[in-house]
Design goal:
The protein is an alpha/beta fold. The chain is built from 21 helices and 25 strands. It has 3 domains: 250 residues, Glutamine Phosphoribosylpyrophosphate, subunit 1, domain 1 (4-Layer Sandwich), CATH 3.60.20.10; 176 residues, 3-Layer(aba) Sandwich (Rossmann fold), CATH 3.40.50; 149 residues, Glucose-6-phosphate isomerase like protein, domain 1 (Rossmann fold). The protein has an 8-stranded antiparallel β-sheet with strand order 3-2-4-1-10-9-11-15, covered by helices on one side. The protein has a 7-stranded antiparallel β-sheet with strand order 5-6-7-8-12-13-14, covered by helices on one side. Strands 17-16-18-19-20 form a 5-stranded parallel β-sheet, with helices on both faces. β24, α18 and β25 form a beta-alpha-beta unit. 55% of the residues are buried. It binds 6-O-phosphono-alpha-D-glucopyranose.
C-alpha cells in the first residue's frame, strides 16, 4: 500500500537524498508510482511519475531540491482510484499550488465532496480520491482559518481511511500529519529534525525515537519537535509517550543477501528462537480464556490465514474444541446472524494493519461487546492491538520482503506455545509428555538451520526441473494442507505461477485429471497420522505417470521409495516433532518459490500488484 514520508529540519542536511532513500525503504509495501514535494521561498516543487523509484530518479533527479530547502514530503503510490499515471501520483496540490498532500488510504465519500468542490469552481487534475483534500483545505483557508483549523475542518468531512502528511508553501517549518485507520509514525531527532512515515524503517537510520499516531489524532511537526491534538478537541495539545525503537536498521537491510526474501528465510531460526522467549505469563493470559469459550474462531488474510490453519490443528489437539478458521474478508458475511456471546476470535496479522481483518473485528466487538479478541501480530502498537483484549507479539523482527516468510513460522510457533500452555492448564496429558512436546518445539530452529545449510542447491535443481512444466501442484493431508496451500501462495506471489496447494485425498475429485506422463506433484509427507493414507495417494498419482517429488523426514523410506526426488527435512521420527511439521517443512517451499522467481527473472521482493500491508478493501 502507499508509503508516506515527511521530513522537516533546521540542519544543513541533504533532505532530497534522505527523502529518496526513505521512500526506497518503503518500496517493500508495494507501489506503482512515486513523487516528492519540497518547499522553499514560499513555493512548492513537485516531481512525480509512474514507475519504479530508481527509473524515475534517473530522469527526474528526485533528490535534487532547491538549495536551502528544509522540508519535503515523499510518497509511493499503490493505485486505487485511477490508474498509475504521472497525474494520479502523489503529492496532490490545490488550485493555488500552495497546499501539498500525500495520502495512504481510501476516502469513501470523495465523489460527493468532489462535486461540491467542482461546483465551487475548483479544478481537478487527477482521478484520485486524494486530490479532494488539498482543495477542501484551500476552501477552509478561504474562511480565515489557519492551516491547522482548515485541515481539521477538511478531514472532519472525509469518510474512510487516511494517513496524511500535508505542507503549505507559506508555512516554512511545518508538516501536519493525521490518521484514521492507516498507520503513521512520527520520528524525532530532538531539536533538529522531525519525520513522519507509514513505517519505522523509513526514518530508522536517522532516529530511534518515535511516537505512534493513533486514529483521529493530528500532529504538527516542526524541526525537531512535535505537538499532538485530538481531531475532536484540536485546541488543546495532548501529551504522548515517546517510544524507543529497539532494533536497528541492519535488521531492515539486506546484509549481503541478494534479496530480503532470501535473508528472511535464513533468519527463520533466529526469529523462532526469539519468539520462543515470549513471556510465559502473556502466553498464559492468552490461553486461559480459550478454556471456557463456547465458540472459537480464527481469522486472518493471506499467509497469516495459512498460519491460522496450521495453528488451529495444534491448539485443537490439546484444547479438544472445534476452532473454525474463516478468511477475514468473509467473516462478517458468514457470521452476521450467528455470532454468539462468549465467543473468542483469534486474529493473526503480521502487519496488524490489514483492513480486511480490522473491519470484522471492529464489527464483532460492536455487535457483541462481550466477545474477546485475542490477536497475534509482529508489530507493536499496530491497529489490531487497539481492538484486542490480549495481544501476543511475534519476535520475527522487521520483515521487508512482500511475501511473508519468517512471520509465518513465528505465528505458528506462537500458536503452538499457546497450545502447550493449554495442555498444561488442562492437566490431561502428563507433565512429562508435555515436556517432550516443548523439547520438540525448542529443536525446531535447529532443524530449519540444518535444512537451510544443506539444501539450497537441491531446491534450485528442482526448480529448474519444474520449469520444464507448465503446471504442477502441492498435495498433502491433515495439518500439512496448510503447508501445501502456503507453498502455492508463495509461488503465486513471487514467481507469478498459479500453482495450487490441495488436499491429496480431494485431488482425486478434480486435479488428478491433469496428470500425464512426467507431470510433477510435490507431496508434503511428514510421518504423522495421515502418512499411510497419503502413501495411497502417492501411488494413485504414480500409477498415472506422475513424477513424484516428496518432502519427507530424513529417515523416511516408504514414500521415498516411490519418489523420483525427495527433499529431506532433518527431523526425528516421533509424534512430538510431527506436530510442528508445518513450521519445519515450509522453508523448503519458501526457497522453492524464491528460486522460481529468479528463474523467471522476477524480483521476489517486489511482486507486481502486491502490497505488504493492505489497508484498502
Ligand atoms: C498481503 C501481503 C501478504 C499477507 C497478507 C496479510 O496480501 O502481501 O503477504 O499475508 O497481506 O497480511 P497480514 O499483515 O495481515 O498478515
Amino acid at each position: 500500500m502507499c508509503g508516506i514520508f515527511g521530513i522537516v529540519t533546521n540542519q544543513n542536511i541533504k533532505i532530497g537524498k534522505i527523502a529518496l532513500e526513505s521512500i526506497k525503504r518503503l518500496e517493500y509495501r508495494g507501489y506503482d508510482s512515486c513523487g516528492i514535494v519540497s518547499q522553499h521561498n514560499n513555493s512548492l516543487f513537485v516531481k512525480k511519475d509512474a514507475g519504479k523509484i530508481d527509473e524515475i530518479n534517473e530522469y527526474l533527479k528526485l533528490d535534487e531540491f532547491p538549495n536551502g530547502s528544509k522540508l519535503a514530503l515523499a510518497h509511493t503510490r499503490w493505485a486505487t482510484h485511477g490508474p498509475p499515471t504521472k497525474i494520479n501520483s502523489h503529492p496532490h496540490l490545490d488550485c493555488t499550488d500552495k497546499i501539498a498532500v500525500i495520502h495512504n488510504g481510501i476516502l469513501e465519500n470523495f465523489l460527493e465532496l468532489k462535486e461540491e468542490l467542482l461546483s465551487k469552481g475548483h479544478i481537478f487534475k487527477s482521478e484520485t480520491d486524494t486530490e479532494i483534500i488539498p482543495h477542501l483545505i484551500e476552501e477552509y483557508l478561504k474562511q480565515n482559518k489557519n492551516l491547522k483549523e482548515a485541515i481539521v475542518s477538511a478531514i472532519k468531512r472525509c469518510e474512510g481511511a487516511y494517513g496524511l502528511a500535508i505542507c503549505h508553501a507559506d508555512y516554512p517549518n511545518t508538516i501536519i500529519a493525521c490518521r484514521k485507520e492507516s498507520p503513521l509514525i512520527i520520528g524525532i531527532d530532538k531539536g533538529k529534525t522531525s519525520y513522519c512515515a507509514s513505517d519505522i524503517p523509513a526514518f530508522l537510520p536517522y532516529t530511534k525515537y518515535c511516537y505512534i499516531l493513533e486514529d483521529d489524532e493530528l500532529a504538527i511537526l516542526n524541526a525537531g519537535s512535535v505537538e499532538f491534538f485530538d481531531i475532536d478537541n484540536s485546541d488543546l495539545p495532548k501529551q504522548k509517550k515517546v517510544q524507543e525503537i529497539n532494533w536497528n536498521i541492519d535488521a531492515a537491510e539486506k546484509g549481503g543477501y541478494q534479496h530480503f526474501m532470501l535473508k528472511e528465510i535464513y533468519e527463520e531460526p533466529s526469529a523462532l528462537r526469539r519468539t520462543m522467549k515470549i513471556s510465559p505469563d502473556s502466553i498464559k493470559d492468552f490461553a486461559i480464556p480459550l478454556l471456557t469459550a463456547d465458540h472459537i474462531y480464527i481469522t486472518a488474510a493471506g499467509t497469516s490465514f495459512h498460519a491460522s490453519l496450521a495453528g488451529k490443528f495444534i491448539i485443537t489437539k490439546f484444547l479438544g474444541k472445534y476452532i473454525e478458521a474463516i478468511e477475514c474478508s468473509e467473516f462478517k458475511t458468514q457470521l452476521n446472524n450467528s455470532l454468539e456471546e462468549n465467543s473468542i476470535i483469534i486474529a493473526l496479522s503480521q502487519s496488524g494493519e490489514t483492513i480486511d481483518l480490522i473491519e470484522p473485528i471492529r464489527w464483532a466487538k460492536k455487535y457483541k461487546p462481550s466477545i474477546k479478541i485475542l490477536s497475534i501480530t509482529n508489530i507493536v502498537g499496530s491497529s489490531i492491538t487497539r481492538y484486542s483484549d490480549k495481544v501476543l507479539v511475534t519476535q520475527a523482527g522487521p520483515e521487508i520482503g512482500v511475501a511473508a516468510t519468517k512471520t509465518f513460522v513465528t505465528q505458528i510457533l506462537t500458536l503452538a506455545l499457546v497450545a502447550l500452555e493449554i495442555a498444561k492448564l488442562k492437566n490431561k496429558d502428563s507433565q512429562e509428555e508435555i515436556q517432550k512436546y516443548y523439547e520438540a518445539l525448542q529443536s525446531v530452529p535447529d532443524i530449519i538451520e540444518n535444512f537451510l545449510e544443506k539444501n539450497a542447491d537441491l531446491i534450485k535443481y528442482i526448480v529448474s526441473d519444474l520449469e520444464k512444466n507448465l503446471n504442477f501442484f502441492f498435495l498433502a493431508r491433515g495439518a500439512s494442507i496448510a503447508t501445501a496451500k502456503e507453498g502455492g501462495l508463495k509461488l503465486k506471489e513471487v514467481a507469478c505461477r498459479f500453482i495450487e496447494g490441495y488436499s491429496a485425498a480431494h485431488a482425486k475429485h478434480g486435479p488428478i485429471s491433469l496428470v500425464r506422463d512426467g507431470y510433477p506433484i510435490i507431496f508434503i509427507a511428514p510421518p504423522d497420522e495421515t502418512y499411510e493414507r497419503l502413501l495411497g495417494n502417492v501411488m494413485e498419482f504414480k500409477a498415472r505417470g506422475g513424477k513424484i517429488i516428496s518432502l519427507v523426514i530424513e529417515s523416511d523410506e516408504k514414500i521415498t521409495n516411490l519418489s523420483d526426488i525427495t527433499i529431506r527435512i532433518p527431523q526425528p521420527r516421533d509424534k512430538y516433532h510431527n506436530l510442528f511439521s508445518s513450521i519445519t517443512f515450509i522453508p523448503a517451499l519458501q526457497l522453492l518459490a524464491y528460486f522460481a522467481a529468479l528463474e523467471h527473472n522476477l524480483d521476489p521482493d517486489k511482486p507486481l500488484n502486491l502490497a505488504k500491508t493492505v489497508t484498502v478493501h
